C-alpha cells in the first residue's frame, strides 16, 4: 500500500531520491514467512519506513543529496539501518535532503527540492525535508532523520509531524555520513508521539562501533509516552525560554506557542519563565563549529574513494582530478561551509574563531545546567516561522540560518529535544511546532510531555 502511495504522489512531492521496491517487498515477504513459520517477530515487524539519504544502506545508493556521491553504493549497513532491519522494519527507500545536511529547506539538494505536502510551493524544512514530507504525505508511517542543528525538529515543525533529536550519543553514528561529528545525531520521525517512541526504542542503544556512543540504559520512552497520554504531566516543572520570542517570530507562531503553554498549565504543569542569556550567541558559535568540522569531514571526498571522478583522462595529475571533482561535485552551500571552516581552523585564526566558539558552547551548556536545576523541561517554538515559499531564502544564507535559532542550542549542549505539532498559524493555515527540551539522557521526559499535549 505504501509503495502504491509513493507511486501515486511522489512525482509531485519528491520526498524520495531512491525507492527500493524490490528490497522492500523482499523484506515484507520475509516477515510474512517468519510469521507463517511461527517464528518470533521483531518489535516493528513489517512496518514501512523512509530513511534519510545520508544513512548507509548495503547495496542501495546513498548520495547525501550530492552529485559527488552519485552512483556510490555502500558496501555496509549503518548501525541504525541494521537495528531497523533486525526489528523487522521494511525500508522503502532513501529520502531527499539538503546536500550533506547543510540547509533548512531541502533546496540545496543536487536532485531538486521537495514540496511541503501542506502546500507544494513551500519548503518541507531541512535538511531532512524528504523524511518529513514522506510521513506528512502518508508515503511512510515512520522515517529516520539526522539533526546537527535542527534538521529533524524544524522539518517536523513545518510539516505538522513529530521529530526527536535524542541525547547526543544515544543513537550510533556508525555509518552516518559525517557533517559535524560533535553535533550530528540521528533520530525518529512519525505522525504521533507514541509511534516516534516505538521507533526511538529500536534505534537507540550503545554501539561499540561509535566511540561517542553512550554506554547506559536507554530511558523507557514508550512507557513515558503512554504515561503522558494516560496520566498527563501534573507536577512537572516547565520552563519557557525567555530569549526565544520577539523580533523575527511570526505572530501566529507566538500565539500558538502561548496557547500550548496554557495547555501545559491546564494539564497541571508548573510553568515558569527561564532566562538562558548565552542562547543569543548559539547561532554564530554553531556557524563556526559546524563548518569547521565539515571542512575536515568532507576532505575524504577526494575523487579516489567514492562516487564521482572528473578529469580522469590521462591529462591531469591526481591533485587536479581531486580539485576538478570537488569543483563539479559540491554545491555552493557546501563550498561556502568548507571555505568558512578551513578559514576558522587555520593557524592564526583558530583561537579567535574556533576556540572562541567552543567557549561559547560551554557557556550555553551551563545555561542549560542552570535551567534544568530549576525545571524538568524547557519549551519554545521549534522555529520562528511556518513553512516559507520555495526560493524565498536561497540567496540569503543568513535568513536561512535563522530557521534554526531555537533548535541549535540543544545540539551544542548535546541534550534531547522534540518538536510536536501545536496547531496551525491563523494567518496562513500552516503547522506550528512546539519544541520540548530535556536534559541529556532524560529523553523520556520529552515523550511524556509530548504525548500529553499532542
Ligand atoms: N540548518 C542547519 C545547517 O544548515 C542544520 C542542519 C542539520 O541539522 N543537519 O547547518
TrEMBL record:
Gene3D superfamilies listed in its UniProt record: Amidase signature (AS) domain (3.90.1300.10)
NAD keyword on record: no
GO molecular function, one term: glutaminyl-tRNA synthase (glutamine-hydrolyzing) activity
Stretches assigned to the Amidase domain: 1-446
Keyword Transferase belongs to the record: yes
Catalytic activity: L-glutamyl-tRNA(Gln) + L-glutamine + ATP + H2O = L-glutaminyl-tRNA(Gln) + L-glutamate + ADP + phosphate + H(+)
Entry-linked PROSITE patterns: AMIDASES
E.C. designation(s): 6.3.5.7
Subunit structure: Heterotrimer of A, B and C subunits.
Family that this chain belongs to: Belongs to the amidase family. GatA subfamily.
Name of this protein: Glutamyl-tRNA(Gln) amidotransferase subunit A
Species of the source: Mangrovactinospora gilvigrisea
